[in-house]
Amino acid sequence: MNDYYQDLGVSRDASAEEIKRAYRKLARRLHPDVNPGPEAEEQFKKVSQAYDVLSDPEKRRAFDMGADPYGGQEGGFGQGFSFSDIMDAFFGAGAAGGGRGPRSRRMRGQDALLRLDISLAEAVFGSDQEITVDTAVECSTCHGAGTQPGTDVRTCEICGGRGEVQQVQRSFLGQVMTSRPCTACQGYGTVIPNPCFECSGDGRVRTRRPLKIRVPAGVDTGTRIQLSGRGEVGPGGGPPGDLYVEVAVEQHPTFQRRGDDLHCSVELPMTAAALGTSIKLDTFDGMTDVDVRAGAQPGDVVTLRGQGVTHLRGTGRGDLLVHLSVQTPTHLDAEQQDLLRQLAAARGEERPEGRLAPVQTGLFGKLRGAFTGK
């Protein structure tokens, strides 16, 4: 009988971790892909068999007592030897399937995404909102365990609680044992013989619940508000994910938002624009006086500082830009027409001649000023 301790170069009282480290070191050096040749292949099988015996507590105990660790069956590489041990030797633990052993029923819940429609005024100042969340919460009957009250999970009889089953396959190295998740328990290592009648063993149920949130001032369409731990509860009573609320700002009939500035348009009679005036404008801050200078032209902009949208990440607010639209009077009666003719005569404008205006004060300049506020 081979001396498996000597084959791996470890003492008889070596720990399981020392045995694994020794095997990894030898496997890297002797693997046929790294060191081809019949001698290296034979040596590789030898150390692999040694590791197969010494890494299994039952086989190691039998070997230490002088008995055949394989119970009279022919030993050799692959006899009870897991393919994942080869992957562990070259890439570290877990390389052949994300770590061996049963997986936990308790997992983190998924994140959730909701859309919230708000008004422009609510975006300017912020608001408190109440939303309804359709999500998964912990089952109140089994408290996430998934079992009926008074019962418990049972070790899977197929995999013995390992969460995986092994299958022997032949390869160029001989017989290789691969592992795959147990289909009977889905890799959990346990089964639920008496599932909770409320959640059917999932440990959670779906419900609709109200949730109050604070929408900060300055949000815009597409802004996402993260609420940590307000998403779905995970299977098996696992921790909840996060809830993301995506904001959509409704269009306003009067004001238009561009960045943190607000824009609106005000129609003025020609006489008011010529003489100058003060008008009252209903803004988000209440009634506000807007002073229009004498001789105001179509497209002129009056800027009200600090009456725009609150800066989302900072202090202060944007501006409110009032665009003037001068209206030419129509449907004049005889007296009104006569007064206008007198005004035209006084200004020498009975027969005006059209002339090209400089770009900065002409049509294109007015359009540019409407967007820049200049």
The quaternary state of the protein chains shown equals single chain
Strand fraction: 25-35%
Characterize the main sheet.
Answer: 4 strands, mixed
Q: Can you give the helix content as a percent range?
A: 10-25%
CATH uppermost class of the largest domain: Mainly Beta
Number of domains: 3
- In the CATH hierarchy, what is the architecture of the largest domain at level 2? Sandwich
Q: How many beta-strand runs?
A: 15
- Uncertain segments: 73-85, 88-99, 361-368
The average pLDDT value, as a whole number, equals 83
> What is the CATH T-level topology of the largest domain?
HSP40/DNAj peptide-binding domain
Q: Please, what is the CATH homologous superfamily of the largest domain?
A: Urease metallochaperone UreE, N-terminal domain
Secondary-structure blueprint:
Layout: H1 4-8, H2 16-30, H3 38-54, H4 57-64, H5 83-91, E1 112-118, H6 120-125, E2 127-138, E3 154-155, E4 164-171, E5 174-181, E6 190-191, E7 204-215, E8 224-227, E9 243-249, E10 256-258, E11 261-269, H7 270-275, E12 277-283, E13 286-292, E14 301-304, E15 320-327, H8 334-346, H9 363-372
Parallel strand pairs: 1-9, 11-15
Antiparallel strand pairs: 2-7, 3-6, 4-5, 8-9, 10-11, 12-13, 14-15
Helix pairs in contact: 2-3, 2-5
